[in-house]
Amino acid sequence: MKTKIGDSLIAVSIVGVILLIMIPLRPKALDFLFIFNILISIVILLTALYITEPLQFSVFPSLLLIVTLFRLGLNIAATRLILSNAGDAGKVVKTFGSFVIGDNFVVGIILFLIMVIGQFIVITKGTERVSEVAARFTLDAMPGKQMAIDADLNSGVIDEVMAKVRRRDVQREADFYGSMDGASKFVKGDAVMGIIITAINFVGGIIIGMVMDQLTFDDVLSTYALSATGNGILSQLPALLVSTATGITVTRAASDENIGTNIRKQLFTQPDVLIVSGVIVAVVSLIPGLPKLSMLFFATLFVVLGYSLKKATKEKQVKEKAQEQEKAVKETRKAEDISTFLQVDKIELEFGYNIIPLVDVNQGGDLLDRVVAIRKQCAVELGLVVPVVRLRDNMQLSPDKYVIKIRGAKVAEGTVYADRYMAIKNDDTQDTIEGIEDFEPAFGLPAKWVDQKTRSKAEMSGYTLIEPTSVIATHLADVLKHHGHELLDRQQVKDLIDMIHKTQPALIEDCVPKVVSLGEVQKVLSYLLKEGIPIKDMTTILETLSDYGQMTKDTQMLTEYVRQNLRRVITAKFVPEGKAPVMMPDPDLEQLILDNIHQTKQGSYVNLEPTVLQSMLTKVKDAIESFTQMGLQPLVVTSPVVRFHFKYLTEQLAPDLVVLSFNEIEPHVQLINKHVITA
Known about the structure:
Elements: H1 2-19, H2 27-50, H3 60-84, H4 91-101, H5 105-155, H6 160-212, H7 217-250, H8 259-267, H9 271-284, H10 292-333, E1 347-351, H11 356-359, H12 367-382, E2 390-393, E3 401-406, E4 409-415, E5 421-424, E6 436-439, E7 446-450, H13 452-460, E8 464-466, H14 468-487, H15 490-503, H16 505-511, H17 518-530, H18 538-548, H19 555-565, H20 567-574, E9 579-585, H21 587-595, E10 597-600, E11 603-606, H22 610-629, E12 635-638, H23 640-650, E13 658-661, E14 670-677
Parallel strand pairs: 1-2, 9-14, 12-13
Antiparallel strand pairs: 1-3, 3-4, 5-7, 5-8, 6-7, 10-11
């Protein structure tokens, strides 16, 4: 209700501003409005000083039009009173005119012209140019900013909500500077209008006074010229304040602090500058004819201020150092909580001391930001919320070595040189550079670590250069994708289910724990993640478990049913082009596996004779090598009842081998049988 009343008052006020042009006012009413005009101009100026970024005052272009129109209405109302009331336009106009003119009318006119022309040439002209350039640069930069937002969104650095906020801010910024480019013309027109109205009041007063009222020229000057000049000064003073606010707003750089704080921090943070400036002024004061007393006063002031700031800075540094040492002592003396040694981090990245600069933000390291981006990428691609990655230095490791641990156990390691680049040779690249021999940790490609001097030569030779931070980040991302199923605990599954319950309560009530338990859901999700199947579509997964969970409690079978209902996701991930060369088990091999499946309460397993199993694995290995030589990605397609068991049998030989069933592939996909795996 209060908001509606406030909006109505603002609307009525704007209409009232327009009515000022037509409705005659009494001198006392004009005094009131002149004072209000000065007050609102001061408020606008102070607001421009205290904002931290221009968009915080986005209403300024519209407000600039309103206050300009308000001053125009006051000028017209004052002109009406000056010309029709024998120069009497109120006490405020008379007081300003008497204060500025004094006993010399010519001086008053000159001061008025200097104020108007100075405002027009210096502030208004500069503000207009800055607004024009800012609007042009902002509009030119919009496509790049939009692309940057899209890139951050695609990489997982920001989510959709943050992307919408940033896009809206970019659009608001463009609208603001575009509006300010046009609104600055109001300021320019206001300055010109002030001169014209003052001239009209002066000439009109002379005509009325000498022709109609039969006054002498001296009487006309004391009557009309006084009021005309006072009205001009009174209208230009708020205009000057608003023009200054306009210039401050359009020249504001993005900052977290207001302009006063920025000036204080940036101008007075270098004590030596103040001291040197004071010494220079003291030396210049020795020139004969200059006011030595004034110059020595300011020289002494600047030198004393500089030494005071220098002393305060040193004391602050000493105090901060003492506080850090005291804090370190307290941490050392603090009683240790033995229970902390019993906790195991889900993911750890330990590194030698030479890798610390890659992690330390103060030294320019961005590994922390890379880790955050990787966690977001896993959430986007797999639907897995990766726990916080614990980064810590380990003095027991080699200086250039790092280790990745899952639940306290080492799963991967590598070596990076913080001051070098990893150069990976392409197929047609000549091995012509010198460096430290190594392998790319994520994919096992042969590589060399080259220094800065060899970098240009390596690029010209066709090598692909990778920064050390990117090497660690890529390796970590690969580890998380291969071991993501080990990170999924029941608490995370519970959180996922709770999130779905907010939007689909009926699904959760019908499925968990009524049909399947939380542990069974966790096992199914782990099976999916282990083979690289995203679990983002939790609705389909839970609906499938709800449908088939009453038929069987075998989590392996439930996983196969879920995979079949996720066929679109699986097809898009493993067969994106609509056709793929594949290898298929021989029907005799499939029947052999089926005949040796044993069912237990815990699930099913295949028990093949060692010689038969070894023969099958050898043929699978030959098939994989054949695909690799042809430059093809190995892909096995088999019947639904055999798929899981075939994957289990070949997992030790080829853990990354993709094994799909016919029911997991969309019907339109063309499968080209390139190799048959026999028994």
